[in-house]
Amino acid sequence: MSAGRPPNLLGATWVLVRKDLLLEWRTRARANALVFFSLATLLLFSFALGPDTTILRRAAGGTLWLAILLASVLALGESFRVEQENAALDGLRLAPADARALFLAKSLANALLLMLLGTVILPVLAALAGVTLVQGPGPMAVVLVLGALAIAGPGTLYAAIASQARARDVLLPLLLFPLLIPALVAAAKATSLVFEGDPMLQFRSWLGLLAGFDLVYWSLGFVLFPRVLED
Amino acid sequence: MTHALFTVVGLVVVGGGLYLLVRGPASLRAGVAVLGLVLLISGAWYGLSVAPPDREMGNVQRIMYVHVPAQWMALMAVTLNFFCSVAYLFRPGWAKDALAEASAEVGLFFGAVGLVLGSIWGKPTWGVYWSWDPRLTSEAILLVAYAGYLALRRFIDDAERRAVWSAVVGIIIAVDIPIIWFSVRWWRSLHQMQSSPSTVDPDMVRALRWNAFAFLALWLVFLSSRYLIARARTQREVAPPPLAAEVAT
Fold first, then answer.
1. A185 and B184: CB-CB below 8 Å?
2. So what's the pLDDT on residue B131?
3. Hey, are the CB atoms on A182 and B89 less than 8 Å from each other?
4. Residue A144 near residue A119 (C-beta atoms within 8 A)
5. Domain total of chain A
6. CA neighbours within 13 Å on the CB side: how many for A176?
7. What ipTM was estimated for this complex?
8. Which of A156, A174, A220, A230 is the best mutation test for B, with the most CBs of B within 10 A?
9. Distance separating alpha carbons of residues A150 and B12, to the nearest angstrom
10. Residue A199 DSSP one-character state
């Protein structure tokens, strides 16, 4: 990157994603906390739904996504809380980079973290609920990627808003959960189909819904995020 | 063609009514409120005694005369909120922000009324208060979403930030409406299809329209009053009146 020329959108995004991932890698505190938090959630679900393994198996898809969703609120809140320290967010705002790059970078970093989280807790869920990937790891990976993107896109936008409001810990889930219900429905259904097989061939429709949700909210976030950040 | 004409006339009546109520004297709002109450009471009488009972649902169907108008008003308020949010982001103005706040709250109120009435109707008809039908579920999700919107407005102290952020959230929620609708419909389905006015008894249509006008009058009064409150509050935040001590000196 030559000095004096502001980086283009993708260049700036890349730099910011690397910054977020590097910060994450140096402490690994957030990732560790998230993994243990969602493992605890999985255990809680198992106890709440009872020892009957048929119920656990049938609820497995929803359990996985609820565990990820609940953890995501912590992850998203934290991703903007670190920017509040030493007014780092103001620093980013002053940098000659597009605010939209900040949205893409934050969302991507959050999505990667959630994908990692899903990959880590999936084997545990498989053991606890007694499910197997009937359709193989490929479709499961697609659902994880699309689902993580669906949470991270609007989640990052809302976290940016909530982080600067009062009572931000209450506000973020209050705003985010109703919005994410379509994504939750689609991801949970698709995951169940991966676990239990797909005789009616509904898997593609749910993936389509999830992909549409991603497309709509990543575009909206991309357009609206600069307005959220400006003072 | 007639539909387009009705829409234009309706928009002019609603827009003009709102403008008059906001700009006009408080007595005008009081007058429209009284008119709305009279219409509501007489509409209840008409719907309960003049309109014939439904062939299949019997008297239970009469709830429709208030349930449907409540949902129409909620829909109008939510649409208004969306347009105010978009308009604010293009050209900021306190009037749009205040109207967005008013419409979200009024929409939440009428939506909640409609939802409760619908679920009272559902108990004898479907046998349950709550069914996971797409409309019911979508509306419940939306009500929670707008409750979140109003909470957001409460939690931000800076008036300008509040206006921008709630406009962003208002747009995001409105965009979610069709997505929620599709997802829930795929998830499960059961709701009554709408009837067209040509297939039902004219007395039923009259009862429905009567109540719709009653609700419209109340909607206008609520919205304009809430708008004036929101307007006064931002006015005080942005340009506070001088303190009593300053005035005295």
1. yes
2. 77
3. no
4. yes
5. 1
6. 28
7. 0.87
8. A174
9. 40
10. T
Q: In whole angstroms, what is the distance from residue B219 CA to residue B36 CA?
A: 9
Express each pLDDT in B69-114 by its tens digit.
Answer: 998 899 899 999 999 999 999 999 899 999 999 999 999 999 999 9
Residue of B168, B185, B188 to mutate when probing chain A, most A C-beta within 10 A: B168
Instruction: Give the tens place of pLDDT for each residue, A64-74.
Output: 999 999 999 99
Is A76 among the domain residues? Answer: yes
> Would you state the structure tokens that stand for residue B217, as one six-digit string?
């009058």
Q: Is residue B1 helix, strand or coil?
A: coil
Q: List pLDDT tens digits, range A96-117.
A: 778 888 899 999 999 999 999 9
DSSP B40-69: HHHHHHIIIIISPPBTTTBGGGGGHHHHHH
Task: Give me the residue from A178, A185, A224 closest to B148, CB to CB.
Answer: A178
Is A4 part of a structural domain of the chain? no
Taking the alpha carbons of B118, B138, B86, A99 in that order, is the dihedral positive or negative?
positive
Chain B residues in contact with A175 (beta carbon < 8 A) = 145, 148-149, 151-152, 169
| A157 CB within 8 Å of a chain B CB | yes
* Interchain CB distance below 8 Å, B152 and A175: yes
Beta bridge partners of B58: B54
What pLDDT is recorded for position A85?
80
**Interface A:B, Cβ pairs < 8 A:** 90
The per-residue pLDDT for range B166-175, each reduced to its tens digit, is: 999 999 999 8
Instruction: Assess if residue A159 is contained within a domain.
Output: yes
A117 touches chain B (CB under 8 A): no
Facing B141 at nearest CB: one of A178, A189, A224: A178
In 3D space, the residue among B86, B109, B106, B107 whose CA is nearest the CA of residue B96 turns out to be B86
Architecture of domain B2-240: Up-down Bundle (1.20)
Please tell me the pTM assigned to this model: 0.87
> Tens digits of per-residue pLDDT, A107-163?
999 999 999 999 999 999 998 888 888 888 899 999 999 999 999 999 999 999 998
Query: B78 vs chain A: nearest CA distance in angstroms?
Result: 15
Tokens of B248: 């005295």
Residues spanned by the domain of A50: 9-229
Q: How far is A21 from chain B (nearest CA, A)?
A: 28
pLDDT at position B190 over 60:
no
